[in-house]
Amino acid sequence: MAISKPVKIIILVLLLLIIIIGGLLVLLYLTAPSRFNILIIGSDQRGTEQARSDVLMVFSIPKSPNQPISLITIPRDTRVNVPGFGSQKITHAYALGDREKDSALGNVTLTKETVEDFLDIKIHATVEFTFESFKDLVDEFGGVDTEAGHLNGTEALKVVRNRYREGGDFARTQDQREIFLELGKKINTVAEAKKVYSFFQTHDQTRLRYQKLPAFTFGLAALIRRGGKLDLANTYREVIPGHGESIYTPDFNKNLYYWVPDEAATQTLVDKYLR
Fold it and tell me: How far apart are CA 269 and CA 146, in angstroms?
């Protein structure tokens, strides 16, 4: 049976729409960042003290499911160049420069810029907590299950803050990564994701910022390639490689402890897990 001219036109229009939509999807996928990097900042602000970053991690989600998700800790004593302030411990970037008046949070803009310069990567989103809001978030999700057992908010906060334990600060950063990923595993439904978003919108000691276009294109790409799912169980976890060193610091007129990055090893880590 012959196809009428109106039907042919409709079929042609539908084919053109499919081609156009397919082309747009391909374009959006190709322009999405290869990794979506989220900077996680834990503030050590107490009372009227100026906030510094006690926890600093980059959570990197690759567009391709063939690449590993990664969670990389930047030790708070890492010696870096802070734009406008010279050589500093990276924790100081959160306390320097401009900050919101009466906020328990610090200078996220300068901290983000410092991390981007240090690692030569793009940060697409930032997540900030204080001690109090971290405890509240853990309790909001009913606590976390770790190798040490089930922890409520107060117990989890004690673990992530404890630098004076066997293994020192590096053992502490290992616990921080474990607790963060265990929290992430609980956000596995749309309802749980909405709960997290609502928490950030309503708690005055948290802050979430993200670049809308990269978030949209990456979210679409992740939906296409990953089906919208993340397997956090196989997340690659590491600390910026380097060595500890006591260095004279003119601003304090004394030697301070720094974590001095190994440039070659850090570059290898960045190329493989953050780009």
Answer: 26
Q: Which fold has domain 5-273?
A: Aminopeptidase (3.40.630)
Beta bridge partners of 255: 248
Calculate ∠ Cα 86-88-89, nearest 5°.
160
**Distance from C-alpha of 173 to C-alpha of 162, rounded to nearest angstrom:** 10
User: Measured at the alpha carbon of residue 11, what is the angle toward residues 8 and 13, in degrees to the nearest 5?
Assistant: 110
User: What is the C-alpha to C-alpha distance for residues 145 and 151, in angstroms, rounded to an integer?
Assistant: 6
The CA distances from residue 57 to 52, 124, 173, 194, 274, in Å, are 14, 13, 9, 23, 12
Q: What is the percentage of the chain residues whose pLDDT exceeds 70?
A: 82
Rg, C-alpha atoms of the chain: 22
Q: Which residue has the higher pLDDT, 230 or 173?
A: 173
DSSP string, 200-253: HHH-TTEEEEE-HHHHHHHHHHHHHHHTT---GGG-EEEE--EEEEEEEETTTT
Assigned token pair, 4:
């009428």
Domain boundary assignment for the chain = 5-273
Both tokens assigned to 15: 């084919």
Cα-based torsion angle of the residue sequence 153, 155, 159, 162 in order, rounded to the nearest 10 degrees: 110
Cα separation, 127 vs 109, in Å, equals 12
Q: Is the pLDDT of residue 269 over 80?
A: yes
DSSP one-letter code for 93: G
Mean pLDDT of the residues in the chain: 85
H helices then E strands: how many in the chain? 8, 12
Give the separation between CA 208 and CA 228, rounded to whole angstroms: 21
